[in-house]
Amino acid sequence: MAIFLEILSWTTMFLLFLIFILFLGYCLYVNHIHMKYDHIPGPPRDSFLFGHAATYVRATRNGEIIYDKFLEWAENHGPVCRQNFLHYVVLLVTCPEGTKEVLMSPKYPKDRFFYSQIFNLFGQRFLGEGLVTALDHEQWYKQRRIMDPAFSSLYLRGLTGTFNERAEKLMTTLSDVADNQTEASMLHLVNSLTLDVIAKVAFGVDLEQLKDRSRFPKAVQTCLKGMLLTVRDSFYKFNPKNRAFIKEVREACHLLRTTGAQWIQDRKTAMENGDDVPNDILTQIIKTAGKEESMTEEDEELMLDNFVTFFIAGHETTANQLAFCIMELARLPDILEKVRKEVDDVIGMKQDITCDDLGKLTYLSQVLKETLRIYPTAPGTSREIQEDIVIDGIHIPGGVTCFFSSYVTGRMDKFFKDPLTFDPDRFHEDAPRPYYCYFPFALGPRSCLGKNFAQMEAKVVMAKLLQRFDFTLLPGQTFDLEDCGTLRPKSAVVCSVRHRNCDK
After folding, report:
1. Can you tell me the mean pLDDT for 175-183?
2. What is the pLDDT of residue 220?
3. What is the pLDDT of residue 503?
């Protein structure tokens, strides 16, 4: 027995010594990374080993906007700003030339440090390897080729009728609010609208006819919050107190993916049987995918990844943009009057808005662009720099991640004078164009496929709202932002709504 205890003791000591050696070796490696990149300016690290991770965790737990910290760092440390996380280095780049060089080129892949983390959420497949998260260029390009016809300008023009139809349902709801003189959370109303639009336009499903419709908005919000916590707090999943929410996230992911699988299978079955099917985005995707030389099980899984991507991104970001736009117009009467006059001149009393009408609403376009300058609902994107590069005169060794944030550059005085002033004339056709410092839909080959879809929808909704209603923000609201994976108004833009000219 004594011999056994002695052997156990020596084994334990050896294991502890081995762990110590491995830890020491890792610390030396982290120090090597520091020496390799510390010539690049950046804020002091919170700790030697974890770098700036504590700043991220604090911001997430306190409900702060981490991009405001990025803005502070960019202004204090320059156009290339270093951040450390263990042995990883992330560079915040606000140099327009560097932004152009990296984002406009296909040779810089998306950053696996971030995008691989949202492949799944707590073990449940989430965005997988869809259009947003695909790291391999060839795999991404194949998907993009399949998706492109469903977002062509010709096809999008045919969606105007659906945009009008769904927006009319919102107008009916607002009419009831005005008649009953009750308050309305504009964020919640437009979120419900854009969810209906993406379900109908993309997948041919009328959510109002589903018994469990109310489950989808909650599932989306739960997934987005889970995504935020996964990315910002690496230790979140190890805390036993978080098990209940982790279970909610997994169930929400499962709901979205099983729903998508059912909708896709129903559509494919209908098409195989020769049934009449809607000429929507899902049909276009299936038709185009069928032209590929071969479709594997993984390709089928990728279609499901893209279902989840479109289902979430196709309504969440547009809803937030609309809510921010309403918030700004409600507190800026001069701009509101100007954009309303344009709507009256172009639309008049018409109920159906055409594509030609949308093209004439130039000032409304400026208002929506200015909204995204100050409030980019998807605030940033990142790329891997695998080879040495020089940005703004700073030599950057390969093996690093560069992060680009339209939120940060859009709020910098060096690019936009008085950046927190809401001024749609910045985007007048005669105004100087922003040079690679305004990219709410990213830039280059990996830019957002659905940006034209989103802006058509936003213009139809805003034009109808301005045409028919006056809206006033209720007192006591903040104009703070909330980071839920996307940026949204924290106070949900609660308004009193009245019919226009109702007192005249």
Report:
1. 92
2. 86
3. 43
In terms of Cβ atoms closer than 10 Å to its own Cβ (0-12, 13-18, 19+), residue 194 is: buried
pTM of the predicted structure, to 2 decimals: 0.90
Spatial separation of the C-alpha atoms in residues 300 and 295, rounded to whole Å: 7
**Please, are residues 252 and 223 in contact by the beta-carbon 8 Å criterion?**
yes
Beta-bridge mates of residue 498: 470
Cα(12)–Cα(32) distance, rounded to whole angstroms?
30
Q: Residue 82 in 3-state DSSP?
A: strand
User: Which residues contact residue 68 at a Cβ distance below 8 angstroms, ignoring those fewer than 6 apart?
Assistant: none
How many residues are there in the chain? 504
Say how far apart CA 52 and CA 43 lie, in whole Å: 9
Task: Kindly state the average pLDDT of the residues 316-333.
Answer: 94
Check whether 502 has a pLDDT greater than 60: no
pLDDT of residue 6: 62
Q: Any binding-site annotation on 223?
A: no
Q: How many helices (H) and strands (E) does the chain have?
A: 18, 13
DSSP per position, 91-156? EEE--HHHHHHHHT-TTSPBPHHHHGGGSEETTEE-STTSTTT--SHHHHHHHHHHHGGGG-HHHH
Mean pLDDT value across residues 149-167: 86
3-state SS, residue 12:
helix
CA angle 464, 411, 61 (to 5 degrees): 90
| Integer Cα distance of 486 and 274 in angstroms | 40
Matching residue, tokens 């690049």: 40
Question: Residue 204 gets which letter from DSSP?
Answer: -
Q: Are strands 380-385 and 400-405 parallel, antiparallel or unpaired?
A: antiparallel
Task: Provide Rg for the chain, Cα atoms.
Answer: 25
Q: Which two tokens stand for residue 191?
A: 């979120």
Of residues 169 and 142, which shows the higher confidence score? 169
Decide: 132 and 306 in contact? Cβ < 8 Å: no
